[in-house]
Amino acid sequence: MKRAHRGPVAALAAAGIAMVVVCGCGGSPAVTGDAVPRVNEHVPADLDITFRWLPGPVLDLFGPEGTFVRAYVESFELADAGRSTTWGYHGFVAASPSNIDSMIAAYPPDVSADRPGVGTAIFTGLRRLDDGDWTRIVLCRHGFRSVRDGPGNGSSWTSRTDAPRPVEIDFRRVGAGPPKVKSGTKRTPDGEVFGDWHTTRVDFAAIYPTPTADQNACAAMVSSGVPQRAPAHGGQPWPSLTPSPGWSATSLL
């Protein structure tokens, strides 16, 4: 199988531009949801985010692949918001390409200590490619976000739905695989969730050259699990939705 790989400089440059556009969006749920408590959860203060994964034929959310992809994509988003790979789940750096720090730096976040965000990221499998122990998973990322307009608790919030975009992750299945996990109420996992598997490439905004076929497919995707609401400005952020399927409250080690 011939694998398509974009040049690293072009891909990173496009990704940085893409994230400036995409992260200028935030949003709200068409379904009700309460903000999830942050007690003992490893989430940057700048972005109070939860993750929801919609089931489908591309990715078994409860198998080893589902564990790995969920953990890696969530870790990347948290690391981007916190501006450090230390916000990734245990084993994130070991499961990443050697240039993971520069990859994180290429995706500038739209939140900061003075302008924190609240929201939910929603992922759905779009397609996959398999070649021996190598796999590419293409996801569609939807979601919503509220960003505070300035410092201080009295500031207002701007809330919008995120522009849908494809996310690509390439990985190799080597050594011991990730554990199978059960659904749970925790937003982040305990213990090691990557096994010995290794990510060889990740494109968190795969929209170059724009628009790609995957970008169009994600934009056309209609699902009851993806809430939609008109942009708003007010005194409170739209509440995050509960994690789904979430992570087990017990250690995975």
The average pLDDT value, as a whole number, equals 82
The backbone outline, from C-alpha atoms, is globular
Structural class category = alpha+beta
Secondary structure: helix percent: 10-25%
**Span from first to last CA?**
36 Å
The total beta strand count reads 7
pLDDT < 50 runs, ≥5 residues? 1-40
Describe this structure in words.
The protein has 253 residues and is α+β, with helices and mostly antiparallel strands. The chain contains four helices and seven strands, in the order αβααβββββαβ. It has helices spanning 8-22, 64-82, 100-105, 213-220; strands at 47-54, 117-131, 134-148, 157-161, 165-172, 198-203, 232-234. Strands 1, 2, 3, 4, 5, 6 and 7 form a seven-stranded mixed beta sheet that branches. Strand 3 and strand 4 form a beta hairpin. The radius of gyration is 17 Å and the shape is globular. The protein starts with 7 loop residues before the first helix and ends in a 19-residue tail after the last strand.
Features:
7 strands; disordered N terminus; seven-stranded mixed sheet; 4 helices; globular; alpha+beta; 253 residues; 19% helix
Please write out the topology.
Layout: H1 8-22, E1 47-54, H2 64-82, H3 100-105, E2 117-131, E3 134-148, E4 157-161, E5 165-172, E6 198-203, H4 213-220, E7 232-234
Parallel strand pairs: 1-2
Antiparallel strand pairs: 2-3, 3-4, 3-5, 4-7, 5-6
Give a brief description.
The chain has helices at 8-22, 64-82, 100-105, 213-220, and strands spanning 47-54, 117-131, 134-148, 157-161, 165-172, 198-203, 232-234. The chain has 253 residues and is an alpha+beta fold. Strands 1, 2, 3, 4, 5, 6 and 7 form a seven-stranded mixed β-sheet that branches.
